[in-house]
Amino acid sequence: LQLFGGVSRRHQDGRRMRGDIHILMLGDPGTGKSQLIDYMADLSPRGVKASGQSASKAGLTATAVKDELSGGRWTLEAGALVLADLGLAAIDELDKMNAEDRSAMHEALEQQRIHVNKAGIHAQLNCRAPVVAAANPKDSKFNLSEIPSKQTDLEASLISRFDIIWTILDRPDKEHDLEIVGRILKNRRNSRAEKISHGHRSHAGLMEAGDTMAVD
Q: Which of 70, 120, 130, 207 satisfies CB 3.0 to 4.6 Å to 20 for a cystine?
């Protein structure tokens, strides 16, 4: 349902109400959150994925760069949220992102637009896309005696922007764990080996200048 989205509404006073659903998956490590996010980003025609460990405020919104081909004038390069306009934005490891960088998501999540004021450029960029994000509990394991909002270092103002919070628990269960292990081994046996070929001979496994690499 998040991939299909809903219907945006325009009030009589001109205010816009988004029709997309933002989802936060808050779960124990090793429960497949990253795999699910990867799949959703690949399934969406305009899906864009970012990782909290490497994403910055500029990488999520927009950054100003000099365009040498146009006489050194400043231009804007869109970030992940802007590139996902009318698509889907997937953010993994949201808890690993700096609080200052996460603050750039507030306007994008609620208003689905980003105001940029950099290098003399004043612009408004659309980011009309649902956001699916994944994060781990601050103690790396859920404590069932506490509410989920107290088990993460994410700001309350950011959590409130998400419409649905899915809690994913890794409950010890011998039979269920055996089923998972069997499925993993089955997928491993049915998959094919990755083939890497080099265009030119390289010394000691290191690629030389002019080498090409193809991954099948």
A: 130
Mean of the pLDDT values across residues 86-115? 86
Q: What is the pLDDT of residue 133?
A: 92
- Three-class SS string for the chain? CCCCCCCCEECCCCCEECCCCCEEEEECCCCCHHHHHHHHHHHCCCEEEEECCCCCHHHHCEEEEEEHHHCCEEEEEECHHHHCCCCEEEEECHHHCCHHHHCCHHHHHHCCEEEEEECCEEEEEECCCCEEEEECCCCCCCCCCCCHHHHCCCCHHHHCCCCEEEEECCCCCHHHHHHHHHHHHHHHHHCCCCCEEECCCCECCECCCCCCEEEC
